């Protein structure tokens, strides 16, 4: 694949997630999310946004801005102090245990550190089979081989352990596991920040290919505005727990309204995909 300058790429936009009525087909809705710890320490403060089916929303901001906390509330990995998350029209925090179990098959997360997210005592075969076991579903050998093939690894990886792989290969295993139960929504929590630039670019391109192949919806968390501009349809900018700017990627990147957004853009060098 030719090298593409993310800073200069021309993005051809398509209409996605639109129903016959012309209204956006919303998959995720966050309304007034607040998260406080301890004695009123507020790390997320009144954050609201939507993600349409098939869309990639970039959530950007410096470390400590509240991005990962928002992501974990979207998946109900942590409870908000206040606010609401609706998934495909259903109130996630009002869901019963059995309802939540069903919803969890439809949403997954890929974490930042590809090694810490894998159990070092489990071989790849067991790592990939674990989601099926948790949800009581059969896991034929051919399905495991198919999962690896989709992320660019071959069947010989099944018998190996995480320490035997490079960082980029480990992240591919994480992605394969996240896709095991064929979810429709993935939270990508800085999935390439622990990788070197060239390997990270390959993983980003893989994510784009998988999205097109499986009609996935992404929340892509990053501190890199050029990377978000390359991968995402819209971008939400967070600063100190608050959402300070939200809009189409090209509009925000070319004509940012907030000084903080301009600082993020200038602070991240142009990168390239391979």
Protein topology:
Blueprint: E1 4-5, E2 26-37, E3 41-52, E4 56-60, H1 67-74, E5 82-87, E6 90-91, H2 97-104, E7 107-110, H3 124-134, H4 141-150, H5 167-178, E8 185-189, H6 197-214, E9 217-222, H7 225-231, E10 234-239, E11 242-248, H8 249-254, H9 259-267, E12 272-273
Parallel strand pairs: 4-9, 4-10, 7-8, 8-9
Antiparallel strand pairs: 1-12, 2-3, 2-5, 5-6, 10-11
What does this structure look like?
The protein is α/β, with parallel strands linked by helices. The protein is built from 9 helices and 12 strands. β10 (234-239) and β11 form a beta hairpin. α3 runs parallel beside α5 (167-178). The longest helix is centred in the last third of the chain and has 18 residues, at 197-214. The model is unreliable at 1-23 (pLDDT under 50).
- Category from helices, strands and their pairing: alpha/beta
Measured distance between first and last alpha carbons: 6 Å
Sheet with most strands: strand arrangement: 7-8-9-4-10-11
Q: Uncertain runs with pLDDT below 50, 5 residues or more?
A: 1-23
**DSSP helix count?**
9
Using brief descriptors, characterize the structure shown.
single chain; alpha/beta; six-stranded mixed beta sheet; four-stranded antiparallel beta sheet; disordered N terminus
Concise structural overview:
The radius of gyration is 19 Å and the shape is globular. The chain has nine helices and twelve strands. With 274 residues, the chain is α/β, with parallel strands linked by helices.
């Amino acid at each position: 694949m030719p090298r593409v300058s993310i800073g200069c790429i021309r993005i051809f936009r398509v209409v996605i997630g639109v129903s016959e009525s012309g209204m956006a087909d919303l998959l995720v809705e966050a309304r007034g999310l607040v998260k406080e710890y301890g004695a009123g320490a507020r790390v997320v403060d009144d954050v609201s946004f939507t993600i349409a089916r098939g869309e990639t929303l970039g959530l950007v901001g410096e470390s400590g801005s509240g991005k990962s906390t928002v992501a974990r509330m979207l998946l109900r990995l942590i409870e908000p102090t206040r606010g609401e998350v609706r998934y495909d029209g259903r109130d996630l925090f009002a869901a019963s245990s059995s309802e939540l179990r069903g919803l969890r098959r439809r949403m997954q997360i890929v974490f930042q550190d590809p090694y810490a997210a894998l159990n070092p005592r489990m071989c790849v075969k067991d790592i990939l089979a674990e989601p099926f076991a948790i949800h009581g579903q059969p896991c034929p050998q051919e399905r495991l081989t198919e999962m690896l093939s989709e992320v660019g690894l071959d069947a010989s990886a099944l018998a190996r352990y995480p320490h035997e792989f490079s960082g980029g290969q480990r992240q591919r295993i994480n992605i394969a596991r996240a896709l095991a139960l064929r979810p429709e929504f993935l939270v990508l929590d800085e999935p390439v920040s622990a990788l070197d630039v060239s390997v990270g670019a390959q993983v980003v391109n893989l994510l784009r290919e998988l999205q097109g192949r499986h009609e996935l919806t992404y929340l892509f968390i990053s501190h890199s505005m050029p990377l978000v501009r390359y991968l995402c349809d819209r971008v939400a900018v967070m600063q100190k727990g608050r959402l300070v700017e939200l809009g189409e990627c090209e509009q925000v990147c070319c004509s940012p309204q907030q000084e903080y957004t301009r600082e993020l853009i200038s602070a991240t060098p142009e990168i390239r995909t391979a």
